Amino acid sequence: MATGKTELPLKEATVFRNLLKNYELRQYKKGLKLAEGILKKYPDHGETMAMKGLFLNNLEKKEEGYEYVKKGLLKNLTSHICWHVYGLLYRADKNYEEAAKCYANALKFNKNDLNILRDFAILQTQMRHYDALVDTRTKLLESKPQNPPFWLGLAIAYQLVNEPQNAVKVLNTHAESNVPAANTNFEKSELLMYHNMLLEETGDFQSALDHLLEIESQVTDKRAWKEKNALYLVKLGRKEEGEKAYRILISENPHNSAYINELLALKDKAEINTVLSELFAKYPRSKAIEHLILHYAEGESFKVKVEASLQNGLRKGIPSLFAAMKKYYVNAEKKRVIEELVVGYSASLEKNGTFGSDSAKEPPTALLWTLYYLAKHYDHHGQLEKALELINKAITHTPTVVELYMTKGRILKHSGKAQEASDVMNEAREMDLQDRFINSKSAKYMLRAGQIEEAERVLGLFTRKDVNTIQDLTDMQCQWFMTEEGHAYLGKKDYGKALKRFHTLEKFYVDYFDDQFDFHTYCLRKLTLRSYVETLRWEDKLRAHPFYLKAAKGAVEAYLAIADKPSDSDEFDEANMSEADKKKAKNKARKAALKAQQDQEAKKAQIKDEAAKQKHDKKPVDLDPEGESYLNTKTPLEDALQFVKPLELLAPQNIEVHELGFEIYIRQQKYLLALKALSKIASLNKDAPCFKTKLDRFESAVKADKDLDAKIKQVIDLQLAEIKKA
Questions:
Q1: Where is this region: Disordered (predicted)?
Q2: CATH ID of 293-522, from 2.60.120.260, 3.40.50.150, 3.30.565.10, 1.25.40.1040
């Protein structure tokens, strides 16, 4: 094995430099031709072999590309180019850990190479290795201080390690260097507002306000400037000026409840209703103000105000009226008032066509929407028979309103009648075949009723005709569909397909995370630094989303079912069988296994043929549509844990997350982790129904484990005592 470095003569060295430029310009075919020319004369030149592999990889010949890069690296293990190229291949495959190792090796042999340092910094940001990122960004800046993005990159690195004061110093030093980072007014504005963001994060609000006033004329994002100005004034205790600032913001957008709430926070409780009345007189169309008035009103005042809102909504036929009102139901008195009023309206409208004895005649639709409201009201409170009676009455009144059938379907769903709910929702869909929303809603109810094929057919009415429905929904990253169909398959105990859907959704989140990659350099060039930092922080909490939690629960349930499933040898009880029955059972099991294997091989052959046919069209081909790779896993508990681990960090206040963790850990006999999950459940809600059951299971499992280490048993006993005492 040759590991020495082969030096190229001047002519070929020039060609090699041109080859590197071809890669930067994305001229892969031209670069490949040049590489092959060099290798004809110098077949052992490792760096050229590595570059040839890189070109092949970019020309969609991945396996061949990896082969050449590895060969090139073996020819020259001390070449930073070979290691860098190897890292680029891993990065293209999104294998960031291996790519980082390659970059680290490349820097051993050329510690000041700007391209490697820049790529390494991007990778460290993507992997959230922020402490190491500060070092890399410092080296980049020291290597080329005249490059503005390197200054900004270091400032962001300090901000990400929670050292905004150092980030401010970097920006101040950069400003003194007279190397402009911004060219347009927008870029200058963004850079100044980012500087202000850092000052805010230091907690020095006076400096932040002084800086904000200083840059006012140069800021193009006037709304953000005004928001920060109001915030700093309040933080500094300058209430009158803060109030004035928030009133200006409200005048520009009276529908923004955040501005109104900030203004109300500056007032005494006795002043709040007066302020809201004054604002509503100025901005009568603002629903945000109207809802806050109802939130703060009490007693007779609430009744008068909510009556006006209810009558207006019922008269106009606003389907979302109940959704707007139910937030007040947390207050028992307000709930009672609203219920009394709407029940009274219903009786009066049926009798006189009015909301009350002294009021004018209302349009006939007022009764319809009153019945609709009451149906939703009783459904919300679990009075399902009454809700169904009222919605049927509304349908009899006007049988052409889609929303009525949708609500009836929802009530039936809450009654546990999944098939009837699906039928009613489909009836609603057929009333308006052009509406994508009701089409999707109907498909969701079909999935909940177990009508998987019919749901896919209905969804196919609105997907692309040239692509399979499931593939199109996957391409669109349709999360609700993946969770619902996954749970539909779970209900049928088709664990392979269920896991296929849950893993597809999990891949969406991987894609969201991977999609950041291009922005690590883009945002430094375009100076959208505030949005960039906010996006990084948002991405870190992304898996706390309810869709991910729902998919994780389904995936864990499927994996636990696979883990708990008896092996083929356990499926018949040999102890209670005659020799003839044993032989029959074994033959039957063998034939079933053989048939399953043949079916699997036939499916694989069919998929392979389809892949070959569609390769030239570059259409994605699903090589495992049945999810057999997930179903046949040898490590179901470890696979289940991959869904739960992110949630333990991002949703620690959710009891369900710790329930899932407990179920996995107890089966793995990781008692300390199972106990930790129990402790979390107890701290969140010791009265939760699951807690006592799981505690009993845990104690039984520990007692039954005769091989448990005595020291671990002692720790468990101490912690159990603490949990029970708390």
A1: 569-629
A2: 1.25.40.1040
Do 662 and 681 meet the contact criterion of CB atoms below 8 Å apart? yes
Distance CA 460, CA 462 (A): 5
Please spell the DSSP secondary structure of 76-126, one letter per residue.
-TT-HHHHHHHHHHHHHTT-HHHHHHHHHHHHHH-TT-HHHHHHHHHHHHH
Give 361's strand partners.
Answer: 354
Task: State the pTM of this model.
Answer: 0.86
Tens-digit pLDDT profile for residues 470-487 = 999 999 999 999 999 999
* Beta carbons within 10 angstroms of residue 343's beta carbon: 13
- Residue 505 CB burial class (10 angstroms; 0-12, 13-18, ≥19): buried
**Which sequence spans correspond to the domains of the chain?**
1-111, 293-522, 543-573+583-589+621-725
Assigned superfamily of 1-111: Tetratricopeptide repeat domain (1.25.40.10)
End-to-end CA distance of the chain: 66
Q: Is the pLDDT of residue 604 over 80?
A: no
Supply angle C-alpha 610, 612, 613, rounded to 5: 65
**Cα–Cα distance for residue pair 484/507, rounded to 1 Å:** 16
Instruction: Report helix, strand or coil for 221.
Output: coil
